[in-house]
Every structure is written in structure tokens, then in C-alpha cells.
Amino acid sequence: MRRGGRIKKLAAILTCAGMVFATVSCGADGSAQNDSAETVQTAEAETAETTEEGNVAEEQEAAPETGSEQETGQDAQQDPQAWEWDAADEETLRCAFAKGFGGRAGVCVPMAALSDAARMEIVKGQFNSVTMENEMKPDSLLGDKPNIGEDGFPVLSFTVPDMMMKEIKAYNDSVEKEGRKLMVRGHVLVWHSQTPEWFFHEEYNVDKPYVDQQTMLARMESYIRQVMEHYEGADSPYQGMIYAWDVVNEAVNDTDGGMRTDSSWFRVFNSSDFVEQAFVYANRYAPAHIKLFYNDYNDTNPKKADGICRLIEQIKANPEARIDGMGMQGHYDMDFSDVLFKQAAQKYAAVVDEIQITELDLKASRGFDGENTEEEYRKQAEVYKSLYDAVKSLKQEGVPITAIVFWGTDDRHSWLQSANAAGGSADGTRVQCPLLFDKDYEKKPAFWAFVDDSKLEAAE
Ligand code: GLA
């Protein structure tokens, strides 16, 4: 019965996904992160049944020109200050960010959003960078159960993210202006979370010991190679759509800036070497136009920022590795300090070429009970304005922030509405209002903090 339900759900998703970019509503789904995670598994299960080995063989033929520059118009894509706008773009985040600090406006989108026309209107109307919420993560590509190829490595399944890539591509092909196209931030290759435990064990069996380091490195290399071949190979329809990858997520701890130890990656290596190697393999297989990022939360904490910078220095000392950017996740709260933010960004800018805020949201004030939204929205707009002022002033002093990505379109669908153990999470006991659009998809004062703060003052 469960299986039948899953098949039906997948069919509905596929139908809706195909329709939404033609702005036909399939009804609100009301889902947040957990639901979209279920969607990933649903389609994964279905893929294993319907495609067998056929599509994998085709995918593997598409080998990229590894490590080489591919001329797919990236220069124009990479320079927001060169983009042209018209009147329809005036009150949008993408136009404001291009003019305000020369960066992209990004948003996290789960598969479920594709069937929500109102949410997709916000995505298409405001942004030019998309991060998939769960669909490109290791547990999505590897699946629940290992599917081992002839070479002895897990064969990745791209069916779920590709449903999204296909829709994004169709949309991009339909818009002319460069600044309106939705470029993709790949998220994420190497992470202790949302990676199946079997990936780390002998014979891909959780009851067996961890593999040795050489075996784990070979698995990591195969994983990264398959991802890059699939998206950047000469025959890939998605070539050039991904402009950055989070190569490693959250490897540093929150106490002294050393390595996080509650991680199967760390348990296998007992050192930071796997982080360095991930950037070696990413550099080996990713074309040069894709920016390679380290990404982490609690990113304004001085000790953690120092630890991250030490790790970045280790990566940079390896001539075979490449790291271009630091992703400050930006899961902040109402105690946000623009001073600490600027200090941390300055530290990162000393070791990498660019910084992006990759998962921005704001947890509500401690006393907020969901009632006095006007007051809370006003305070929130002030905090967001202080952050945006800091971004613009950093830009003036030469600290290159190249994107601000919000972790969701609207308050209804934020991951902060439910309990989560991830860094920067909420406990699920209080209503949250972390984003720029409210639960009914209306613009909040926080939106104007980024787009036109004179409207903010007028509203006071
Ligand atoms: C971390 C990850 C994101 C997401 C959030 C919680 O920040 O990087 O992918 O899982 O946790 O939604």
C-alpha cells in the first residue's frame, strides 16, 4: 500500500513539475524540508524500478573536459554589474543585489515548490540563483540502498535533481535577460549529515567496520567524478547551469574551531585530510568556471572563523586542490551582530577570492509568540538592513561578496518552523518568521530592507 501511494505521489509531482513553469497551479503542498526529503526518496525508489541500468550507462559516456575552461558564456553570467534590466525588474532582489553589491540573489527551492505556482512566481520573479534544498545531497544521489557498479563504486542516480534541472533549464531558455536566469549552486558533495552510513563501511554494509582511508578516498573520488561528469560532460544538457559547488559542508566544530568529530568522514580519517582531498577531486573534475566553496554555519563566531581559515589554508597549500570561496550559511537570529559579521567576512576574504551568504534566515526574537507580527517584522527588517549595509560596506572596502541566498521563499515553508538538530536550527516550539515573504507569500518589511529601504522608513 505504501508503495502504491508513493508511485501515485511521484506521478503527481512529475505532472505538476512540468506544468508549473507554464504557471499552472497544481495546488499548495504545504510541505517543508522533511516532506521534500520524502519526495526525494519517493522518486529514488521509483527510479530504481523504472530506469534499471540504462540511463546510468548513458550518463557515464558524458565525460567532461576535466579541469578545463568551458566556453559557455560564463563571463557574461558572472558579471551582474553588466546585466541590463527593464522596468519589470525594478523592485526585485536580483536587480537590487546586482546594483547594490554586484552579486546574485539566491533562494533555496525544494522539489515540492515546483508544484506551487505562487512560490515559483516568487522564485522566477525575484531571484537568479537556486539551491536545491535536499535533492542534490549525497542521500538523494546515493539512495537508501547501495547500487554498486561494475567498478565497485556506488552508481549515482540523478533522476530527482534532474527533474528540477530540466524545469530550470526550460525556464532559463524562455528568458532573454541574463540577470533573470536561474543559475544553480550545487549543494553539497561532502557532508557528515544526509549521507548514507553504508557509504563509509566495508562492503557498503553498516554492520562491517569502516573502510580504510585509501578506500574511502577512492569512493569520494568516484562520487565527485560522477557528479561533475553528469552535469558538465560534453553531452550534458545541464552544462554551464551550475556556477558553484559546496564541496565540503560543516567540517569544523563550534567550540574551538577544530574538526567536527561526530562525523563518519572524520571517523574514517581522524584528521582534516578528507577535506583537503575533496577539494583536490573537485578541482580535478570540475571545469574552472565552477567556483568551489567550503560552507559552514555559526560563521561569525571568531574562534570558528579562525578554524575555518586554518582549514582553508591547509587546502590551499595543496597544489592539486582549488578553493575559491567561503559560504557563510547565515542562519542568524535577532542578536545578529554586524560587527562580528564584518570581522568574520574580512578574515575569510583574506584567504579566499569570494564569499557568499548561502542559507540566510533569521530566527525570531526570544519573546515572539506569533501574535505581534507588526513589531517583529519591523525589528527583523532592521536586522536585515544592518546585515545588508554591512555587505555593501564590505564590498566598498574590497571584500567580494558575490551572492546572498535565502534559505526559502516564504515563512510558511521555512525549515525553522519545525524542530531540527542542524546548526542554526529552531526547536519547533515557537512560530518563526525568518524570510522576506510571509506565510501568504506577501512581501514583508524585510523585503524592502534589501530592495528599497526608503519604503521601510516610510512604513515606520
Ligand atoms: C544546513 C545544510 C542545509 C540544510 C540546513 C537545514 O545548513 O547546509 O542543506 O540542511 O542545514 O535545513
Plain-language structure description:
The protein has a single domain, classed as Glycosidases (TIM Barrel). Residues 1-72 have low confidence and may be disordered. Strands 1-2-3-4-5-6-8-9 form an eight-stranded parallel barrel, surrounded by six helices. It is of the alpha/beta class and 460 residues long. The radius of gyration is 21 Å and the shape is globular. Helices cover 42% and strands 12% of the residues. It has 16 helices and nine strands. The protein has helices at residues 2-20, 33-51, 54-61, 74-78, 93-101, 117-126, 138-142, 159-174, 213-232, 264-269, 273-285, 302-316, 338-349, 373-396, 445-451, 453-459; strands spanning 104-109, 129-132, 183-191, 242-249, 291-296, 325-328, 331-333, 354-363, 401-406. It binds alpha-D-galactopyranose. Alpha-D-galactopyranose binds next to loops. Alpha-D-galactopyranose (GLA) binds at residues 33, 187, 249, 297, 329, 359, 415, 422.
Structural class: alpha/beta
Report the top-level CATH class: Alpha Beta
Largest sheet: 8 strands, parallel, barrel
Quickly count the domains. 1
- The CATH architecture comes to Alpha-Beta Barrel
Strand content: 5-15%
Oligomer state of the chains in this structure: single chain
Distance between the termini: 55 Å
SSE pattern: HHHHHEHEHHEHEHHEHEEHEHEHH
- CATH overall fold name: TIM Barrel
Q: What compounds are bound to the protein?
A: alpha-D-galactopyranose
The total of beta strands comes to 9
Number of helices: 16
Over all CA atoms, what is the radius of gyration? Answer: 21 Å
**How helix-rich are the residues, as a percent range?**
40-55%
What is the CATH homology-level superfamily?
Answer: Glycosidases
